[in-house]
Amino acid sequence: MILQLVKLCWNRKRAQALVAVEVFFSFLVVFAVMTVAVYNLDNYRRPLGFDYQGVLNVNVTSLSDLATSLGDTPTSAVEASRRLRREVRGLDAVEGVAGMAVPAFDLTGMSSVVEHQGRRIDSFNNEVTDDFAQVMGVEVTQGRWFEPADDALSFEPVLINERLKRDLFGAEDPLGKDIAPEPDGHSTGHGGGNAARELRVVGVFTDFREDGELSGPEPYFFRRSRTEGPDAKPYHNLVVRVRPGTPAAFEESLMDRLRAVSPGHTFHVDPLAKTRRSMMRLRLVPMISAALIAGFMLIMVALGMVGVLWQSVARRRREIGLRRALGASGQGVSLQVLAELLVVTTAGLLLATALAVQLPLLGVVGWVGNRVYAVAMALAALTIYGLTVVSALYPSWLATQVQPAEALHYE
Questions:
Q1: What is the pLDDT of residue 252?
Q2: At 193, which helix (H) or strand (E)?
Q3: Can you tell me whether residue 180 is helix, strand or coil?
Q4: Phi/psi at 287 (nearest 5 deg)?
Q5: How far apart are CA 23 and CA 350, in angstroms?
Q6: Interval 128-157: pLDDT, tens
Q7: Region label for 354, one of left (φ > 0), alpha (ψ between -120 and 50) or beta (otherwise)
Q8: How far is Cα 64 from Cα 278, in angstroms, rounded to an integer?
Q9: Could you give the CA distance from residue 136 to residue 205 in angstroms, rounded to a whole number?
Q10: Three-class SS string for 333-399?
Q11: Is 67 exposed, middle or buried (0-12, 13-18, 19+ CB in 10 A)?
Protein backbone atom coordinates (compact mmCIF):
# COMPACT_ATOMS: atom_id res chain seq x y z
CA MET A 1 0.00 0.00 0.00
CA ILE A 2 2.76 2.44 0.92
CA LEU A 3 4.71 1.55 -2.21
CA GLN A 4 1.63 2.19 -4.30
CA LEU A 5 1.15 5.59 -2.69
CA VAL A 6 4.78 6.45 -3.39
CA LYS A 7 4.29 5.50 -7.06
CA LEU A 8 1.15 7.66 -7.30
CA CYS A 9 3.02 10.63 -5.84
CA TRP A 10 6.02 10.03 -8.08
CA ASN A 11 3.80 10.03 -11.16
CA ARG A 12 2.66 13.52 -10.16
CA LYS A 13 6.06 14.67 -8.90
CA ARG A 14 5.92 18.03 -10.63
CA ALA A 15 2.69 18.95 -8.89
CA GLN A 16 3.87 17.54 -5.56
CA ALA A 17 7.35 19.13 -5.65
CA LEU A 18 6.03 22.50 -4.51
CA VAL A 19 4.43 20.93 -1.42
CA ALA A 20 7.66 19.08 -0.59
CA VAL A 21 9.69 22.30 -0.87
CA GLU A 22 7.21 24.16 1.36
CA VAL A 23 7.43 21.37 3.93
CA PHE A 24 11.23 21.44 3.75
CA PHE A 25 11.56 25.12 4.60
CA SER A 26 8.63 25.10 7.03
CA PHE A 27 10.24 22.33 9.04
CA LEU A 28 13.53 24.21 9.28
CA VAL A 29 11.80 27.38 10.51
CA VAL A 30 9.60 25.52 13.00
CA PHE A 31 12.55 23.46 14.15
CA ALA A 32 14.60 26.61 14.86
CA VAL A 33 11.75 28.13 16.87
CA MET A 34 11.12 24.86 18.73
CA THR A 35 14.79 24.49 19.57
CA VAL A 36 14.91 27.92 21.21
CA ALA A 37 11.57 27.33 22.97
CA VAL A 38 12.51 23.89 24.33
CA TYR A 39 15.96 25.15 25.36
CA ASN A 40 14.47 28.04 27.33
CA LEU A 41 11.74 25.87 28.85
CA ASP A 42 14.36 23.35 29.93
CA ASN A 43 16.35 26.16 31.54
CA TYR A 44 13.27 27.63 33.21
CA ARG A 45 12.55 24.46 35.14
CA ARG A 46 16.07 24.37 36.61
CA PRO A 47 16.74 25.90 40.05
CA LEU A 48 17.91 29.50 39.81
CA GLY A 49 20.38 29.07 42.65
CA PHE A 50 19.36 32.14 44.64
CA ASP A 51 16.30 33.86 46.08
CA TYR A 52 15.54 37.26 44.53
CA GLN A 53 12.20 37.84 46.29
CA GLY A 54 12.38 40.63 48.86
CA VAL A 55 15.83 41.77 47.68
CA LEU A 56 16.69 45.28 46.48
CA ASN A 57 19.66 46.09 44.29
CA VAL A 58 21.29 49.43 45.06
CA ASN A 59 23.53 50.69 42.28
CA VAL A 60 26.05 53.31 43.38
CA THR A 61 27.16 55.32 40.37
CA SER A 62 30.84 56.27 40.15
CA LEU A 63 31.65 55.03 43.64
CA SER A 64 34.99 53.70 42.37
CA ASP A 65 35.76 57.21 41.07
CA LEU A 66 35.15 58.83 44.45
CA ALA A 67 38.81 59.69 44.89
CA THR A 68 38.95 61.44 41.53
CA SER A 69 35.62 63.24 41.70
CA LEU A 70 36.08 64.59 45.21
CA GLY A 71 39.85 64.77 45.34
CA ASP A 72 40.02 62.07 48.03
CA THR A 73 42.38 59.13 48.35
CA PRO A 74 41.38 55.58 47.33
CA THR A 75 41.10 54.80 51.05
CA SER A 76 38.26 57.28 51.26
CA ALA A 77 36.35 55.44 48.53
CA VAL A 78 36.68 52.16 50.41
CA GLU A 79 35.60 53.79 53.67
CA ALA A 80 32.61 55.37 51.92
CA SER A 81 31.65 51.92 50.68
CA ARG A 82 31.87 50.49 54.21
CA ARG A 83 29.86 53.39 55.61
CA LEU A 84 27.07 52.86 53.11
CA ARG A 85 26.82 49.20 54.04
CA ARG A 86 26.76 49.98 57.76
CA GLU A 87 24.04 52.60 57.37
CA VAL A 88 21.84 50.32 55.30
CA ARG A 89 22.31 47.40 57.69
CA GLY A 90 21.20 49.61 60.57
CA LEU A 91 17.74 50.22 59.10
CA ASP A 92 14.90 48.39 60.89
CA ALA A 93 13.41 47.02 57.65
CA VAL A 94 16.70 45.45 56.53
CA GLU A 95 17.55 41.81 57.29
CA GLY A 96 20.92 41.78 55.57
CA VAL A 97 23.13 43.62 53.09
CA ALA A 98 26.06 42.52 50.95
CA GLY A 99 28.20 43.87 48.15
CA MET A 100 28.73 42.39 44.68
CA ALA A 101 30.53 43.41 41.52
CA VAL A 102 27.97 42.45 38.84
CA PRO A 103 24.26 42.65 39.73
CA ALA A 104 21.83 39.87 38.91
CA PHE A 105 19.57 40.17 35.84
CA ASP A 106 21.90 42.74 34.28
CA LEU A 107 23.00 41.00 31.02
CA THR A 108 26.62 41.78 31.88
CA GLY A 109 29.20 39.55 33.47
CA MET A 110 32.81 38.66 34.10
CA SER A 111 34.49 35.56 32.72
CA SER A 112 37.86 33.96 33.35
CA VAL A 113 39.63 30.86 32.12
CA VAL A 114 40.34 28.44 34.97
CA GLU A 115 42.58 25.42 34.79
CA HIS A 116 43.22 22.21 36.70
CA GLN A 117 45.67 19.52 35.60
CA GLY A 118 45.69 20.73 32.01
CA ARG A 119 41.91 21.05 31.71
CA ARG A 120 40.94 24.62 30.82
CA ILE A 121 37.39 25.97 31.07
CA ASP A 122 35.95 29.42 30.43
CA SER A 123 33.85 30.23 33.47
CA PHE A 124 31.70 33.17 34.56
CA ASN A 125 32.48 34.67 37.95
CA ASN A 126 31.54 37.42 40.35
CA GLU A 127 33.07 39.19 43.37
CA VAL A 128 30.94 39.23 46.52
CA THR A 129 31.31 40.02 50.21
CA ASP A 130 31.06 37.61 53.12
CA ASP A 131 27.34 38.24 53.77
CA PHE A 132 26.29 37.50 50.20
CA ALA A 133 25.26 33.86 50.66
CA GLN A 134 22.95 34.72 53.54
CA VAL A 135 21.38 37.69 51.78
CA MET A 136 20.80 35.92 48.45
CA GLY A 137 20.06 32.44 49.76
CA VAL A 138 22.97 30.73 47.98
CA GLU A 139 23.17 27.08 49.08
CA VAL A 140 26.63 25.69 49.86
CA THR A 141 26.70 21.94 49.23
CA GLN A 142 30.34 21.25 50.07
CA GLY A 143 33.00 23.05 52.08
CA ARG A 144 32.24 26.51 53.44
CA TRP A 145 31.40 30.07 52.47
CA PHE A 146 33.71 33.09 52.80
CA GLU A 147 34.48 34.41 56.28
CA PRO A 148 36.44 37.35 57.77
CA ALA A 149 39.33 35.03 58.72
CA ASP A 150 40.05 34.69 54.98
CA ASP A 151 41.80 38.07 55.12
CA ALA A 152 44.84 36.29 56.58
CA LEU A 153 45.09 33.67 53.80
CA SER A 154 48.01 33.76 51.39
CA PHE A 155 45.76 32.61 48.54
CA GLU A 156 42.43 33.88 47.21
CA PRO A 157 39.52 31.63 48.28
CA VAL A 158 36.83 30.85 45.71
CA LEU A 159 33.61 28.87 45.64
CA ILE A 160 32.63 27.00 42.47
CA ASN A 161 29.20 25.84 41.35
CA GLU A 162 28.28 22.21 40.77
CA ARG A 163 28.63 22.60 37.00
CA LEU A 164 32.20 23.88 37.23
CA LYS A 165 33.04 21.16 39.76
CA ARG A 166 31.83 18.49 37.35
CA ASP A 167 33.48 19.98 34.27
CA LEU A 168 36.82 20.82 35.87
CA PHE A 169 37.29 18.11 38.50
CA GLY A 170 34.99 15.27 37.48
CA ALA A 171 34.71 12.84 40.39
CA GLU A 172 37.70 14.41 42.17
CA ASP A 173 37.19 16.33 45.42
CA PRO A 174 37.76 20.02 44.53
CA LEU A 175 38.29 21.34 48.07
CA GLY A 176 41.78 22.71 48.57
CA LYS A 177 42.62 22.49 44.87
CA ASP A 178 43.96 25.45 42.88
CA ILE A 179 42.27 26.66 39.72
CA ALA A 180 44.96 28.67 37.99
CA PRO A 181 43.72 31.37 35.62
CA GLU A 182 45.29 32.19 32.28
CA PRO A 183 48.75 33.77 32.62
CA ASP A 184 47.51 37.26 31.75
CA GLY A 185 43.83 36.64 32.59
CA HIS A 186 40.92 38.09 30.72
CA SER A 187 37.49 39.30 31.60
CA THR A 188 34.39 40.61 29.93
CA GLY A 189 31.80 43.01 31.22
CA HIS A 190 32.58 44.81 34.48
CA GLY A 191 35.89 44.62 36.22
CA GLY A 192 39.43 44.23 35.06
CA GLY A 193 41.84 41.34 34.77
CA ASN A 194 42.37 38.52 37.22
CA ALA A 195 44.47 38.96 40.35
CA ALA A 196 47.88 37.35 40.40
CA ARG A 197 47.15 35.43 43.63
CA GLU A 198 46.33 31.78 43.14
CA LEU A 199 42.68 30.79 43.37
CA ARG A 200 41.93 27.94 45.76
CA VAL A 201 38.56 26.21 46.12
CA VAL A 202 37.11 26.35 49.64
CA GLY A 203 33.50 25.41 48.84
CA VAL A 204 30.90 24.34 46.30
CA PHE A 205 27.46 25.88 45.80
CA THR A 206 24.48 24.76 43.74
CA ASP A 207 24.31 27.48 41.11
CA PHE A 208 23.97 31.20 40.50
CA ARG A 209 22.32 31.92 37.14
CA GLU A 210 22.68 35.67 37.30
CA ASP A 211 20.97 36.25 33.93
CA GLY A 212 17.73 34.62 35.05
CA GLU A 213 15.72 31.46 34.50
CA LEU A 214 16.08 31.46 30.71
CA SER A 215 19.88 31.46 30.82
CA GLY A 216 21.62 28.15 30.34
CA PRO A 217 23.64 26.31 32.98
CA GLU A 218 27.18 27.65 32.93
CA PRO A 219 30.37 27.11 34.96
CA TYR A 220 30.45 29.78 37.64
CA PHE A 221 32.55 30.73 40.64
CA PHE A 222 32.57 33.40 43.35
CA ARG A 223 35.63 35.39 44.34
CA ARG A 224 35.83 37.12 47.68
CA SER A 225 35.63 40.89 47.77
CA ARG A 226 37.73 42.15 50.67
CA THR A 227 36.24 44.92 52.76
CA GLU A 228 39.20 45.37 55.11
CA GLY A 229 42.94 45.71 54.66
CA PRO A 230 45.11 47.13 51.87
CA ASP A 231 43.41 44.96 49.21
CA ALA A 232 39.93 46.23 50.05
CA LYS A 233 37.97 47.67 47.12
CA PRO A 234 34.78 49.71 46.90
CA TYR A 235 31.81 47.98 45.32
CA HIS A 236 29.25 49.34 42.90
CA ASN A 237 26.23 47.29 43.94
CA LEU A 238 24.59 46.48 47.25
CA VAL A 239 22.01 43.72 47.58
CA VAL A 240 19.61 44.45 50.43
CA ARG A 241 17.18 41.87 51.82
CA VAL A 242 14.21 43.54 53.46
CA ARG A 243 11.86 42.02 56.00
CA PRO A 244 8.60 40.45 54.76
CA GLY A 245 5.78 42.99 54.56
CA THR A 246 8.05 45.97 53.99
CA PRO A 247 6.09 48.54 51.92
CA ALA A 248 7.33 49.83 48.57
CA ALA A 249 7.71 53.28 50.13
CA PHE A 250 10.83 51.95 51.88
CA GLU A 251 12.74 52.28 48.61
CA GLU A 252 12.32 56.06 48.68
CA SER A 253 13.35 56.31 52.32
CA LEU A 254 16.38 54.15 51.56
CA MET A 255 17.35 56.51 48.75
CA ASP A 256 17.06 59.49 51.09
CA ARG A 257 19.25 57.78 53.68
CA LEU A 258 21.92 56.94 51.11
CA ARG A 259 21.99 60.48 49.74
CA ALA A 260 22.39 61.82 53.25
CA VAL A 261 25.27 59.45 53.98
CA SER A 262 27.09 60.06 50.69
CA PRO A 263 25.97 63.35 49.10
CA GLY A 264 27.00 64.06 45.55
CA HIS A 265 26.55 60.45 44.40
CA THR A 266 23.77 58.91 42.34
CA PHE A 267 21.89 55.92 43.72
CA HIS A 268 19.45 53.72 41.86
CA VAL A 269 17.29 51.30 43.84
CA ASP A 270 15.34 48.53 42.12
CA PRO A 271 13.74 45.36 43.46
CA LEU A 272 15.36 42.33 41.88
CA ALA A 273 11.87 41.01 41.10
CA LYS A 274 11.28 44.07 38.90
CA THR A 275 14.67 43.71 37.22
CA ARG A 276 13.89 40.04 36.56
CA ARG A 277 10.61 40.95 34.85
CA SER A 278 12.44 43.38 32.59
CA MET A 279 15.00 40.70 31.77
CA MET A 280 12.25 38.19 30.94
CA ARG A 281 10.51 40.65 28.63
CA LEU A 282 13.79 41.42 26.91
CA ARG A 283 14.40 37.74 26.23
CA LEU A 284 10.82 36.81 25.35
CA VAL A 285 10.13 39.57 22.80
CA PRO A 286 12.42 38.16 20.07
CA MET A 287 11.16 34.64 20.80
CA ILE A 288 7.53 35.72 20.45
CA SER A 289 8.35 37.65 17.27
CA ALA A 290 10.02 34.58 15.76
CA ALA A 291 7.06 32.41 16.76
CA LEU A 292 4.63 34.83 15.09
CA ILE A 293 6.69 34.82 11.89
CA ALA A 294 6.76 31.03 11.94
CA GLY A 295 3.01 30.96 12.55
CA PHE A 296 2.27 33.19 9.55
CA MET A 297 4.56 31.03 7.44
CA LEU A 298 2.70 27.89 8.50
CA ILE A 299 -0.61 29.52 7.58
CA MET A 300 0.73 30.29 4.11
CA VAL A 301 2.01 26.73 3.75
CA ALA A 302 -1.36 25.35 4.87
CA LEU A 303 -3.16 27.48 2.30
CA GLY A 304 -0.74 26.27 -0.34
CA MET A 305 -1.39 22.65 0.58
CA VAL A 306 -5.14 23.18 0.45
CA GLY A 307 -4.85 24.77 -2.98
CA VAL A 308 -2.67 21.99 -4.39
CA LEU A 309 -4.96 19.26 -3.04
CA TRP A 310 -8.08 21.06 -4.17
CA GLN A 311 -6.69 21.32 -7.69
CA SER A 312 -5.58 17.68 -7.58
CA VAL A 313 -9.06 16.50 -6.58
CA ALA A 314 -10.65 18.61 -9.31
CA ARG A 315 -8.36 17.12 -11.95
CA ARG A 316 -8.83 13.56 -10.73
CA ARG A 317 -12.61 13.47 -10.53
CA ARG A 318 -12.77 10.81 -13.24
CA GLU A 319 -10.18 8.66 -11.46
CA ILE A 320 -11.95 9.09 -8.13
CA GLY A 321 -15.33 8.35 -9.72
CA LEU A 322 -13.89 5.16 -11.20
CA ARG A 323 -12.64 4.07 -7.79
CA ARG A 324 -16.09 4.72 -6.32
CA ALA A 325 -17.66 2.67 -9.16
CA LEU A 326 -15.31 -0.22 -8.32
CA GLY A 327 -16.58 -0.24 -4.72
CA ALA A 328 -14.28 2.21 -2.88
CA SER A 329 -16.00 3.95 0.00
CA GLY A 330 -15.98 7.68 0.55
CA GLN A 331 -13.83 7.18 3.63
CA GLY A 332 -11.36 5.13 1.61
CA VAL A 333 -11.04 7.86 -1.01
CA SER A 334 -10.60 10.48 1.72
CA LEU A 335 -7.84 8.45 3.38
CA GLN A 336 -6.07 8.04 0.03
CA VAL A 337 -5.95 11.81 -0.50
CA LEU A 338 -4.62 12.29 3.04
CA ALA A 339 -2.12 9.44 2.70
CA GLU A 340 -0.71 10.87 -0.53
CA LEU A 341 -0.16 14.23 1.14
CA LEU A 342 1.50 12.53 4.11
CA VAL A 343 3.89 10.75 1.75
CA VAL A 344 4.89 14.05 0.14
CA THR A 345 5.22 15.65 3.59
CA THR A 346 7.43 12.80 4.76
CA ALA A 347 9.70 13.25 1.74
CA GLY A 348 10.14 16.94 2.57
CA LEU A 349 10.72 16.16 6.26
CA LEU A 350 13.36 13.54 5.47
CA LEU A 351 15.34 16.06 3.42
CA ALA A 352 15.01 18.74 6.10
CA THR A 353 15.92 16.32 8.89
CA ALA A 354 19.01 15.18 6.98
CA LEU A 355 20.14 18.80 6.94
CA ALA A 356 19.16 19.54 10.54
CA VAL A 357 21.08 16.61 12.03
CA GLN A 358 24.29 17.98 10.53
CA LEU A 359 24.21 21.00 12.87
CA PRO A 360 25.06 19.19 16.15
CA LEU A 361 27.54 16.95 14.34
CA LEU A 362 29.40 20.05 13.13
CA GLY A 363 29.14 21.72 16.55
CA VAL A 364 27.10 24.64 15.19
CA VAL A 365 24.66 24.51 18.12
CA GLY A 366 27.00 23.43 20.91
CA TRP A 367 24.96 25.40 23.47
CA VAL A 368 22.02 23.02 22.92
CA GLY A 369 22.08 19.56 24.46
CA ASN A 370 21.25 16.49 22.39
CA ARG A 371 18.07 15.85 24.38
CA VAL A 372 16.76 19.36 23.73
CA TYR A 373 17.72 19.01 20.08
CA ALA A 374 15.87 15.70 19.71
CA VAL A 375 12.73 16.98 21.48
CA ALA A 376 12.65 20.09 19.29
CA MET A 377 13.02 17.99 16.16
CA ALA A 378 10.18 15.68 17.22
CA LEU A 379 7.89 18.61 18.06
CA ALA A 380 8.64 20.30 14.74
CA ALA A 381 7.84 17.09 12.85
CA LEU A 382 4.58 16.65 14.77
CA THR A 383 3.65 20.26 14.01
CA ILE A 384 4.21 19.75 10.29
CA TYR A 385 2.28 16.48 10.27
CA GLY A 386 -0.56 18.13 12.18
CA LEU A 387 -0.57 20.96 9.65
CA THR A 388 -0.73 18.38 6.86
CA VAL A 389 -3.74 16.63 8.34
CA VAL A 390 -5.61 19.90 8.88
CA SER A 391 -4.81 21.06 5.34
CA ALA A 392 -6.13 17.81 3.85
CA LEU A 393 -9.47 17.86 5.67
CA TYR A 394 -11.46 19.95 3.19
CA PRO A 395 -9.94 18.61 -0.07
CA SER A 396 -10.35 15.03 1.16
CA TRP A 397 -13.99 15.78 2.01
CA LEU A 398 -14.48 17.10 -1.53
CA ALA A 399 -13.14 13.80 -2.83
CA THR A 400 -15.84 11.90 -0.92
CA GLN A 401 -18.51 13.90 -2.78
CA VAL A 402 -17.44 12.55 -6.16
CA GLN A 403 -20.06 10.07 -7.38
CA PRO A 404 -19.37 6.93 -9.48
CA ALA A 405 -21.20 8.51 -12.40
CA GLU A 406 -18.36 11.05 -12.67
CA ALA A 407 -16.32 8.31 -14.34
CA LEU A 408 -18.85 8.15 -17.18
CA HIS A 409 -19.78 11.79 -17.62
CA TYR A 410 -16.38 13.35 -17.17
CA GLU A 411 -15.46 15.60 -20.15
A1: 87
A2: none
A3: strand
A4: -65, -45
A5: 10
A6: 999 999 999 999 999 999 999 998 888 999
A7: alpha
A8: 27
A9: 12
A10: HHHHHHHHHHHHHHHHHHHHHHHHCHHHHCCCCCCCCHHHHHHHHHHHHHHHHHHHHHHHHHHHHHH
A11: middle
Question: Which portions of the chain are predicted below pLDDT 50?
Answer: 63-64, 66-73, 184-195, 410-411
pTM of the model: 0.77
Give me Rg for the CA atoms of the chain.
31
CA distances from 46 to 53, 134, 206, 208 (A): 17, 21, 11, 11
Q: In the 3-class helix/strand/coil scheme, how is 17-55 assigned residue by residue? A: HHHHHHHHHHHHHHHHHHHHHHHHHHHHCCCCCCCCCCE
CB distance 9 to 344 below 8 Å: yes
Q: Which of 336, 312, 270 is nearest to 13 (CA)?
A: 312
Distant-in-sequence, close-in-space partners of 170: CB < 8 Å, separation ≥ 6 = none
**CA torsion, ordered 131, 136, 142, 147, to nearest 10 deg:** 0
Q: Residue 56: left if φ>0, alpha if ψ -120 to 50, beta else—which one? A: beta
Residue 116 main-chain phi, psi, to 5 deg: -150, 120
DSSP SS3 for 268? strand
Q: Is 229 helix (H, G, I), strand (E, B) or coil?
A: coil
Q: pLDDT tens across 165-192, in order? A: 999 999 999 999 999 765 544 444 444 4
Q: Are 117 and 169 in contact (CB under 8 A)?
A: no
pLDDT of residue 22: 83
Q: What is the Cα–Cα distance from 161 to 367, expressed in whole angstroms? A: 18
CB–CB of 20/344 below 8 Å? Answer: yes
- Beta-carbon contacts of residue 110 (< 8 Å; ≥ 6 apart): 101, 102, 124, 125, 126, 127, 187, 188, 189, 190, 191
